[in-house]
Amino acid sequence: MRRLLLLFVAVFTALLVSRELALSLPILGVGPDPLIIVVVVATAGEQPRTAAVGAFIAGFLRDLDPGSASPAGLSALAYALTAYAVALVGAVRGVWVYVGLVAGATFVSQVLYGLGAILLAQQADVGPLPRVVFVTTFYNTLLAPLLVPLLRRVVTPESAVTGSGS
Amino acid sequence: MWRRTSRDRAVFVGLVLATVGLLTLDFRTGVVDGMSSGFGEVLGVFQTGVRTASRPFESFVGSVRELGALRAENEELGRENQVLRRQAETYTDLARENARLRELNTLEGSFDLETIRSRVIGASLSGLERSALLDKGRSSSIAVDKPVLTPEGLAGRIVWAGRQTSKALLLTDSQSAIGVKIGETGETGVVTGTGGRLLRLELVSRAALDQGAVKRGDVVLTSGYQGGVFPPGIPIGRVEEVDLAHRGTTYTILVRPFARLSRLDIVSVVVGQGEVVEAAPSPSPGARPSPMPEGDDV
Question: Which CATH code for domain B80-298?
Fold first, then answer.
């Protein structure tokens, strides 16, 4: 129960940080996606199906944010698929492995989200997609070494801490 | 080692079905909009606090970005002690805000507009959308489709209005399309966002382009079409590039917006409008748009 509460606080805070950095410190007009960092830390070492369901809920909250351009369910599905893949990697040790995982997960989730937006005609122009994907991945990779150690203390699953894996 | 089981497949199928269900609800009913509105209000309350806390940091980052221009001032500030430097940063921030408010007053004074001032408290979570979150909403008479102004000109329009917060779609968003006219010739067209820094102008009449009706440096203004969403004559930007294909009918006209959309701070949301009494001042010398005579925007 305590972990669930901490996860909710982490997701909520990530959304606020996301809005703030997109406004005050964008890179080439693009902000980071700290929520996927929370998802990666929370799901690495988790059961894949649990990871997928948890990430789906986190993504749905992102979809509900009016600051998000996405129709409800799009971020949710992109996060769920990404978290599933992250969970398959198993328990992770070392901040730099997490950083690599964050970079990969950000890239995958952004591509899935962008393609979904294009398919649903939410995004008429494909042109900005590569820039958004690469800049968000770069930005998240910069943030990961700062956020991962903090998040590991609060949202890492027990199985990952004990090293039992899944 | 983990193995995929039928339960995993069931979860997968369940999530895909849930996504389809949510998308259907979102596109066909207002259920998700209601939930989004409530969640947005809660986020907005916290976001205002985050914004206030981050202003000194943002001011610092802004100063670093303008390092070249501020070098002389920085040398002078360097001689001051830590406390005075902090006070100077606070003062600079307030003075900048004051100047922006005066400029906004000038623009609004040029039109008979009833406006509400609002502070930008966030930006779009997705880099694919160009939008800004504002700290005022329906409780301040802000509603969907209301124009959003900066001191330099039009910034966009409201696309979502919660009780205390709202969201503005910026001119540069690829979903944005605004009826415009060219200041010099009155030629009409539509300006659309490109997702980048520039806008794309499509003219109603291709023949007018061949006759040189649009050239680099022309000022682009709102035409006042679209059921009165945008008042006529609001400055949008300046034609930066006119590229005509040697043969055929294709052409590209790019417009640079006057509004500094990447650094929005305080904006005005138009909540009521009357007749245009004179043209708005331009943001730089030589950029002043011509006054539009009545009926010119037809």
Answer: 2.40.10.340
